[in-house]
Structure formats: C-alpha cells, structure tokens
Write a structure and sequence with these properties.
- By secondary structure, the chain is α+β, with helices and mostly antiparallel strands.
- It contains 15 helices and 16 strands.
- It folds into three domains: 170 residues, no CATH class; 67 residues, Arc Repressor Mutant, subunit A (Orthogonal Bundle), CATH 1.10.10; 122 residues, Aminopeptidase.
- The strands form four sheets. Strands 11, 12, 13, 14, 15 and 16 form a six-stranded mixed β-sheet that branches.
- Strand 14, helix 14 and strand 15 form a beta-alpha-beta unit.
- The longest helix has 18 residues.
C-alpha cells in the first residue's frame, strides 16, 4: 500500500526531521551540538568565510546556544571526527566503522583518489608522524612548485591520501589548518573498528538518511556515494516488503514516490514553528541536494560564488531564507568583522511569498541574532527586490530591540 502526503505535509516532515527551526533543548549547549551532529549524521566543512563558515552556521541554526568552540571541543574529546560524507565533514564517532568501506576501497586501489599515490613519500610522512607525533603540512619542507587543482605541495597530497585511506586522522585543527596523527592514537580505546558487511553498510546509509531527512528517494540516499545506487534501490524495496519502510506518494496523482521510516511519520503530529525564520547556509544539510529542494520546496537554487560575476543572478554568497515552512527569499551577505558590519548586498523575495509584513517582522528579529553570530554590531542593507521592501525592513530593524 502506498501512503499519500501533500507537499505541505512532506515539507513539514522534512523540516521536523532536520531540526529546523529548532525546538527547546535540554542539557548543556555542547551536548545539544553533539546531538545535532549525531542526528544529522554529518556536518559539511567548508572554507568560504564570507560569513561564519558553513559548519558553524549549520549547527547554529539548530542550536541557538551554539559556540564556535564546540566543534574543536567535540573533536578533542573524541565525540566526532573528520572524514568524508558526500564531502569533507564532521561525523559522529559512534558511526566510525561505517567510514571504513571507503577507506578500505581507497587503500586497496579499488576506489580512486583525486591525487596519485606516491608510496615513497607516503612512507616518509607516515614514519615522521609515528616518531614525532601530530604534524601539519607546513611541517614538511618543500621548495618546488605546488601542483594540482588546489595547488598543494606533495607532502600535503601524501598526508591527504593517508587520511583518506584511514591511516591518519585529525585530532584537532590550528587556525583551520588540519593536524594529522596516526589513527590508532586518535581513536577512542573502545571504538568498534570492525568493517560493516555490505548489507550492514547499505542499511546504515538508508536508515541514517531517512532519520535525518524524513523521507527520501533511492537516488537521494546514494547521492555522491560511489557504487551504491543499485544496492540502495534493491535494499529499499526489500525494506518496504518487510514493513521497515513505508512507500509515500507526495503531491497527488502526478506526485513522486518517496520512502520513510514509520517512526518518522509520527513527527507529523508535532507542531512546526512556522513563525520562526532561519537564514540558512548554502551547505546546510537541508539544501545540499538542489534537485530535491526543487521537487519538494519549489526552490531553484544555485550557489553562485563559483560562477563568473557577470553570470550571477542573486550574488556571490546568497543565503536561502526559511520561513512559514517554505524557502521564501535569498540574501547575499558578507560580514566585515573588522568593522563589525554585516553587508546585505541584495535581498530577493520569492515571487510566491505572501504575508509580506509578517515575513518582514520575522526577518528583522532573526537578523539581530544573525548579526551577533557573525560578530557584527551594524547592518548595511543595500538592495531589495522588490525595491519597496527595503524601507519596510529598515524601519522594523530600527525598532527591533537588540
């Protein structure tokens, strides 16, 4: 039997599963951060610093008490670790064994890496770290020309290869630069290092994705995970047959088929804080699959920092804005931390946005928090589309308490 959800119900299920907007949390602030990472399964790491980096931004949106120091603390206390999800990420330490299939595939040569293997250099790097302890790329001298897409020196490539195949881990970072040590010196003593069977691994991928995202399709579950799409599809059908998953039609007669865990569907009985607004990172877990956002939220989004300026429609670093259970606007921002000034280069409202006055009030409130999160005391609003929205928002901002 195929169950049915409206698009509105599907969006509600996705947002509640993603923890957006956040609900009241118990315990310490850092434990709330850990809970978010463990529930979501990963937090993508990104280097762009137009505003606070994506890994901080994504967690702050789910934990209002989030502090920038939390990730370093959780890494040092061995509750989370750095590795690869669909991209470079922080992962829960209790999921460590599920990182092993990729590592073993790279180590065996069955899965390629973006750099070639230099066995001699890798052995040198390995021996130095074993003898000297944690090292950074800068600790390896090199006077030649940097190579590759990231213009990295050979020792950095060797370090990353050893990192990707699981011999090295990062016990901490220094000024956002990765430090490397032997994996056995970084891992907690009691951690399970048994590689999962292929069946265990694919079931983990399916359940983890659906817990964090509410509902999903096989292609979404296998997103950027090499050689998994076929096995995910087969296992999803088996789990539907056994009753472990429900098949969901979203959107009516011409809708799309998704899958959900029975427990996830129970979330629909809970309220969604429609009045709370959130300014999202382009790398937020909710947004990272653009086709999914188009299908479920009707939101056509592209991060334009990778485009030439002449081809940008919305701006270098345009942030999607979530309100009323929908993605209703985009805001191109940059934080000038030296001047404590948040620039909003362009704020664009989606054409379907209704209740403009209510949206403006919600945005004015959230912008105050967003400024503090970005270490800014002042705001400069340059452009709005429609133009008439600028004066309304500026008036509300001037009357909104800090």
């Amino acid at each position: 039997m195929i169950e049915s959800l409206s698009l509105e119900q599907a969006r509600k299920l996705v947002l509640l599963s993603q923890g957006l907007p956040p609900v009241n949390q118990n315990g310490s602030a850092v434990s709330a951060t850990l809970s978010s990472i463990e529930h979501l399964g990963y937090i993508q790491i990104d280097t762009i610093s137009a505003i606070q980096r994506a890994h901080h931004h994504t967690l702050w949106n789910r934990n209002p008490r989030y502090k920038i120091s939390h990730l370093d603390e959780l890494v040092r206390d061995k509750h989370i670790f750095e590795y690869w999800s669909h991209a470079a990420s922080y992962l829960p330490m209790h999921d460590f064994r599920y990182s092993l299939p990729r590592k073993l595939a790279i180590a065996s040569g069955n899965q390629g890496h973006w750099w070639g293997r230099d066995e001699k250099l890798m052995d040198t790097v390995r021996q130095r770290i074993a003898a000297e302890g944690p090292l950074m790329a800068k600790d390896f001298e090199y006077t030649g020309k940097k190579m590759g897409a990231w213009e990295s020196k050979p020792a950095k490539r060797a370090l990353e290869y050893l990192f990707m195949q699981g011999e090295l881990m990062s016990p901490y970072r220094v000024n956002f630069h990765k430090v490397y040590d032997l994996a056995e010196r970084v891992l907690p003593a009691a951690i399970d290092t048994t590689p999962p069977t292929p069946e265990e691994h694919v079931r983990f991928l399916i359940i983890r994705y659906l817990q964090a995202n509410g509902l999903g399709q096989s292609s979404e579950i296998a997103y950027l995970r090499r050689n998994t799409k076929a096995t995910v599809s087969v296992t999803v059908e088996e789990m539907v047959s056994s009753g472990e998953l429900h098949q969901i039609n979203v959107g009516g007669d011409n809708g799309n088929i998704y899958y959900a865990l029975p427990a996830s569907l129970e979330l629909l009985s809970k309220p969604l804080a429609l009045n709370k607004l959130k300014i999202l990172s382009p790398f937020d877990n909710l947004l990272i699959q653009r086709k999914r956002m188009q299908a479920l939220f009707g939101f056509d989004y592209q991060l334009e920092c990778y485009l030439p300026e002449t081809k940008r429609q919305y701006g270098y670093f345009s942030l999607p804005v979530l309100w009323d259970g929908k993605l209703v606007a985009r805001m191109d921002c940059k934080a000038d931390r030296k001047k404590e000034l948040l620039h909003i280069h362009h704020l664009i409202l989606e054409s379907g946005l209704k209740k403009i006055n209510d949206f403006a009030r919600a945005l004015s409130i959230e912008l105050k928090s967003f400024m503090k999160f970005n270490d800014c005391e002042h705001l400069q609003l340059q452009r709005c589309s429609p133009v008439s929205f600028k004066s309304e928002l500026q008036e509300l901002l001037s009357n909104t308490p800090s």
